[in-house]
Amino acid sequence: MKVPFVDLKRQYLSIKDSIDLAIESVIDNTAFIGGKYVNEFEAEFAKMYGVKHCISCANGTDSLYIIMKMLGIGTGDEVITAANSWISSSETISQTGANPVFADVDYNFLTINIQDLEAKITNRTKAIIPVHLTGQVCDMDKILELGKKYSIHVIEDCAQSHFSEFKGHKAGTMGIAGSFSFYPGKNLGAYGDAGCIITNDNQLAEKCRMYARHGALIKHQHKMEGINSRLDGLQAAILLAKLPHILKWTDDRIRVAALYERYLQEIKQIKTPVVRADSKHTFHLYVIVTEDRNNLMQYLKQKNIETAIHYPTALPYMEAYQYLGYNREDFPVASDLESKILSLPIFPEITESEVQYVAQSIAEYFESTTG
Ligand SMILES: *Cc1c(COP(=O)(O)O)cnc(C)c1O
């Protein structure tokens, strides 16, 4: 058996007719940039999230940058984010002119550590970017409380957490704004780059929309200089065709995670994901923690099982951030996890026998190492 890490083709084949029709209609209508598909997607996504505004943009990196820029964040400011994330969470801080500040993560949840986060707040901190990594929502009660206490914005990075929930609230609806990526491999994926911002703040919504469209809400009336960050019609139509299925696909991921949990719980050498209480983890990634990561990964590769690491180097230790001069003791958990985390194959269409094969192979590996 061969188990891919993700297989986007299976999802396409399961809804081929509606995707093909969506693509055809966009071409028929030559609605390539802006237009009805983009408007419809924004309206539909906002409705599903129960928010006033959805502003589509080119990708999930731009959405973070646009939100910060329109909140007035810039030179001299500080923004805090998690040490273990994709670089978009921190590079966009620098893009505004502000300084990225990292906080360590929790061993159990792989999300930002609240104590370290509070310790990193200074009078220059303008925002916190909690990253709901792997589909696990951060401790939003505590983060929102800190935001209020120190008057700093909370911007949720939801690139890996479409339709995740914390105490009944959807991830992305709790802070001033939520930032989404629709990169093909994400839980809701386009067939190219795409992203959006959601918010209930009317003023922020208008500014973001304007900034992403060259500073003009009305053609040729540029109130300011902006950037070009648009969602194209093809991507919008593809996303629209996927929306009716996204909640089922999310449930399927949760079911796959439960299967892994069932098959892996007996293996003492690995720690399976811990889901935060009162929350809905949507398992963009299924990350196990084990001392013997590299050998296990190699063994699974021989068994034709594709795995991945999210992420092999924590952000503060990237060459890009060498200038900040951090050492291993600064982020003990993120540093420790680098060599222990392993993401197993997960996607809505993975079969039970594939999950079984992965789990069985992991069990076999540890049986062989302990004799
Ligand atoms: C994917 C991702 C992004 C960026 O999204 P793009 O659409 O690729 O620009 C931002 N943050 C996190 C945590 C991500 O996983």
From TrEMBL:
GO terms for molecular function: transaminase activity. It comes from the Bacteria. The keyword Transferase applies. Keywords: Aminotransferase, Pyridoxal phosphate, Transferase. Belongs to the DegT/DnrJ/EryC1 family. This is DegT/DnrJ/EryC1/StrS family aminotransferase.
